[in-house]
Design goal:
By secondary structure, this protein is α/β, with parallel strands linked by helices. The protein contains 8 helices and 11 strands. Helix content is 39%, strand content 21%. Helix 2 runs parallel beside helix 3 and helix 6 packs across helix 8. InterPro entries: CheY-like_superfamily (IPR011006), OmpR/PhoB-type_DNA-bd (IPR001867), Sig_transdc_resp-reg_receiver (IPR001789), WalR-like (IPR039420), WH-like_DNA-bd_sf (IPR036388).
Length: 228
């Protein structure tokens, strides 16, 4: 999933990006409120991690502006202020959750996972399409009972396809989901990853699930949709 971090502390911003990238997310970063607002309105993010005390435009103003414009993506606020009134103002501005600095990275990741589960159309930690199954918490992938090892990028791609079975996902949709703004995915790169994914989850099996829709993109077809 694609996450936006808006945090003016460069070290913390970097550490959060590294951790979320390791978790398999595509991550964009901004360091002031104006830049964060511009990023938020330029790409389909799954969630935003937003510091309150930002230069140019503070996080509360960014949050209120996004909500006023109909932006519904979950927002996790970060702040050094621990007073109840500050937390109330943060939540009243439209934030979904609030985390006080300093915090444990494991808690931030847990809160982010909870927000993503809350807003996901598929809330179960296990996704299944035919005999293909992935466990979101452990990144375990099996097909027909056979375990399949995937890299983080291939797992992220497969998860995206499995969350939208039988739906055509364009090159742009896939690129926006699995690549950061500073490392955009080209159509050729997406084709390479699709081929690698097919070698893992399709080539060893009789029934093929990943389908290329010429000129449109790719989709993961359920076996009954293929008449098998």
């Amino acid at each position: 999933m694609r996450i936006l971090i808006v945090e003016d502390n460069h070290q913390l911003n970097y550490e959060l990006k590294q951790s979320l990238t390791y978790e398999g997310h595509a991550v964009d970063t901004a360091y002031d409120g104006d830049a964060g607002l511009a990023f938020a309105e330029s790409a389909p993010y799954a969630a935003i991690i937003l510091d309150v005390l930002l230069p140019v435009k503070d996080g509360l103003e960014v949050c209120r502006t996004l909500r006023a414009r109909g932006y519904t993506v979950p927002i996790l606020l970060l702040t050094a202020r621990d007073a109840i009134d500050d937390r109330v103002r943060g939540l009243d501005s439209g934030a979904d959750d609030y985390l006080v600095k300093p915090f444990a990275l494991s808690e931030l990741l847990a809160r982010l996972r909870a927000l993503l589960r809350r807003t996901s159309p598929q809330k179960t930690p296990v996704l299944c399409v035919g005999d293909l199954t992935i466990e979101l918490a452990t990144h375990r992938v099996t097909r027909g009972g056979q375990q399949i090892e995937l890299t983080t990028m291939l797992f992220t791609l497969l998860e995206y396809l499995m969350r939208h079975p039988n739906h055509i996902l364009s090159h742009d949709m896939i690129a926006n989901h699995i690549w950061s703004y500073d490392t955009p995915g080209t159509p050729n790169a997406i084709e390479v990853y699709i081929r690698r994914l097919r070698r893992k989850i399709d080539d060893p099996f009789e029934i093929k699930l990943v389908e290329t829709v010429r000129g449109a993109g790719y989709r993961l077809r359920t076996p009954n949709e293929k008449g098998r």
